[in-house]
Amino acid sequence: MKRRDLMRGFIALGGCAVCAxxxxxxxxxxxxxxxxxxxxxxxxxxKAYEVCSMGGQQSPINITSAIKAEVAPMSISWKKSAAxxxxxxxxxxxxxxxGSSITRDGKVYDLLQFHFHAPSEHLVDGKAYPMEVHFxxxxxxxxxxxxxxxxxxxxxxxxxxxxxxxxxxxxxxAEATLEAFTPRDLLPAGLEYWTYEGSLTTPPCSEVVxxxxxxxxxxxxxxxxxxxxxxxxxxxxxVTPLNRRLVLMSK
Length: 251
Known about the structure:
Blueprint: H1 2-12, H2 42-45, H3 51-54, E1 62-63, E2 67-69, E3 75-77, E4 81-87, E5 92-95, E6 101-104, E7 107-117, E8 123-124, E9 131-138, E10 145-154, H4 159-166, E11 175-181, E12 193-198, E13 209-214, E14 218-220, H5 222-229, E15 248-250
Parallel strand pairs: 1-8, 2-15, 10-13, 10-14
Antiparallel strand pairs: 3-6, 4-5, 4-11, 5-7, 6-7, 7-9, 9-10, 12-13, 12-15
C-alpha cells in the first residue's frame, strides 16, 4: 500500500510518461517489444524501470477466474471532439482535449488519451484478441489512473475505427489532427467488465492503475485491424503473474 501511495504521488506531480501526453520514441531509455530491449529486459534497462521485473501487481494478466461481485458501474461522459493522432514510436495514440471523463464509485477520471495494442495485451482463458484499445483516465485530485481496456475483433465495419485507421500516421513521430468524432463509438453495447489493481503495461510499469476490462469486444472491419498491424504487428507486453490479486466482475 505504501508503494502504491508513493507512486500515486509521483503521478500527481507529472512523473508518468503515459499521462504527460505523447511519449516521443527518442525520449528516455530505448525500449521495444522484442529482443534485447524487449519486456524480459525492461526491468534491467533503467533504475526507473525496476518495477517492471520486481513488481507484484503488474499488467496485463490472463483473466481465467473472476469473482462475481457488486462491481461499481461506470458512468461515461465522453464528448464529441477533435483530437490529435500521433505515432509515438510504440503505438498509435489519440490525445484527447479536456472535457471527457468517466465516473466510478463517485470518483471522476478525465480521459487523457487512448491507444492500441496488437494482439490484445489481456487474455481471456488464454485467448488473445487481434487488438485491444486502452482508454487512459486520470483523477485530477490524487493522480489515480483508471484504464478501460476494450478488445477488438474483426467483423462488420465500425465507422469511427475506419476513420482512425485511415489517419494512422505511419512514421514514428508523425502526427495529424482529427476532425470531431465520438470515442464512445469504440465501446461495446454493454459495459459489463472485469476489474483488478495493476500497472502500466509499458515502462516504467508503475503500479498505479485500476484496470477495467470490458467483457465484450467491439467489432470492426478486418481492414482497420490490418491498417494498424501494418505499422505495429506486435506491440503487446506478455501477460504477468496474477499473484495474490483478485479479479472481480459484474454479476
